[in-house]
Amino acid sequence: xxxxxxxxxxxxxxxxxxxxxxxxxxxxxxxxxxxxxxxxxxxxxxxxxxxxxxxxxxxxxxxxxxxxxxxxxxxxxxxxxxxxxxxxxxxxxxxxxxxxxxxxxxxxxxxxxxxxxxxxxxxxxxxxxxxxxxxxxxxxxxxxxxxxxxxxxxxxxxxxxxxxxxxxxxxxxxxxxxxxxxxxxxxxxxxxxxxxxxxxxxxxxxxxxxxxxxxxxxxxxxxxxxxxxxxxxxxxxxxxxxxxxxxxxxxxxxxxxxxxxxxxxxxxxxxxxxxxxxxxxxxxxxxxx
Length: 289
What we know:
This protein is of the alpha+beta class. The protein has 5 helices and 15 strands.
């Protein structure tokens, strides 16, 4: 009997020791200050950042990322080219920099929405008009292409521009083949192409004819030009980012803790030690009967 009591006491002591069932420390997590998850890597997409913003130093350098702020952007928030007489050939591919470092799952049939603020003057239409700057195949209307790495997601022809300021807005819906964007192969970029011509000429200090050409892209510093992406919220799950499935639930989502199994086993052994009769007790009971 003394042996069983000692065993019961020993098991009770073991049960009183805290059992760690994983790597999470709830108390520590509660004590930590809650921070915006986007601040850890502010130029990458995250739950609160799903728009791709367009930047330039105002000259020949272009880049994009998912942060709405950029200290190196051109001071006037514009990229511009002008020419009085002759052609302006725009072909800029604005790639994400720093490169994408996450896996993204785009929502099937979700809408990509492109907004561009443009100022254009001159001529960009091949209409065979003898009075215009553009002859046959001399010019090119606006074309906007979205790329995921080397894969073309869409190419949008935009013929309806007018002289002066334009706000271009159009959308495209994601197909089944375009849902998965892996960081190693799908760094996003927006390509903008257009060819304009000016034919401004001064005959003398009084008389002039024609019109100069201008192409100005308003950048994202004012929240204007951008590409809004239909990123599925499931993209932020750790299992998706790791590239594997989620067969095992984490401990705080209902999974079975290893410590729980250990504690249950100790409890069962304690009950057995206290309540199961010893061999001598069993023999005494048989003798009395």
